[in-house]
TrEMBL record:
Residues 158-199 form the Zinc finger CGNR domain. PANTHER family: BLL6575 PROTEIN. This is Zinc finger CGNR domain-containing protein. It comes from the Bacteria. InterPro entries: ABATE, ABATE_dom_sf, Znf_CGNR. SUPFAM superfamilies: Jann2411-like.
Length: 204
């Protein structure tokens, strides 16, 4: 299936993962509707190094990647429920008991530190990396992005786009917390055009 480029407009990678299914123009698009889509989305999100994605793609059977994409979609919809259940107010420690599915994914990680050249500079630095031993490891960076969102984002800033039929979420980091749209280019313009048409009708 030909997909448009994934949309990263939420100002949070955790919410961008939820937005990996959306209706950017007229027809719904699921960027992770199969294993190839998951690989492509992870590449665009820069969550997995390209060489690791290429190696996993060459090593894993398509059916394995499709199974991981199924798991990613299940994770996405579970996390959507969690976010919508807590959006609009600060998250408290009471929410921890709901986060078992995410902690289970994080517990599978085989990450470790290595000394490596400092990226783009002289010298050495500690670099975190992980063993990408199976297709299932593709869920790990997603789980990490969701966990960072849970622990670092103020849920009071989480909003749903006000666009008609739009399902996208975003973190409103504007100064006055006045953001209303996923993007002005899509839903913002649609709303402006609808308001303009409405004004013209009222004058007739």
């Amino acid at each position: 299936m030909d997909r448009p480029p994934a949309m990263f407009v939420a100002d949070s990678l955790g919410l961008d993962f939820l937005n990996s299914v959306a209706t950017p123009v007229d027809a719904p698009v699921d960027w992770i509707d199969d294993g190839a889509g998951l690989i492509d989305w992870l590449s665009q999100a820069k969550l997995v190094p390209t060489k690791e994605l290429d190696a996993l793609k060459a090593r894993a059977r398509p059916v394995e990647l499709d199974k991981v994409a199924d798991q990613a979609r299940d994770l996405r919809e579970w996390f959507r429920g969690f976010v919508l259940g807590h959006a609009g107010r600060p998250l408290t420690a009471k929410a921890l008991h709901e986060l078992g599915p995410l902690n289970s994914i994080l517990a599978r990680d085989e990450a470790f530190l290595q000394i490596a050249p400092r990226h783009g500079q002289e010298g050495l630095a500690l670099q975190r990396t992980r063993r990408w031993q199976s297709a299932g490891a593709l869920l790990l960076p997603i789980g990490e992005a969701l966990a960072k969102f849970v622990c670092e984002e103020d849920f009071s800033n989480v909003k749903a786009c006000e666009g008609h039929n739009c399902t996208m979420l975003f973190a409103d980091h504007t100064r006055r917390r006045a953001r209303r749209w996923c993007t002005m280019a899509v839903c913002g313009n649609r709303a402006k055009q609808a308001a303009h048409r409405s004004r013209l009708k009222s004058r007739q």
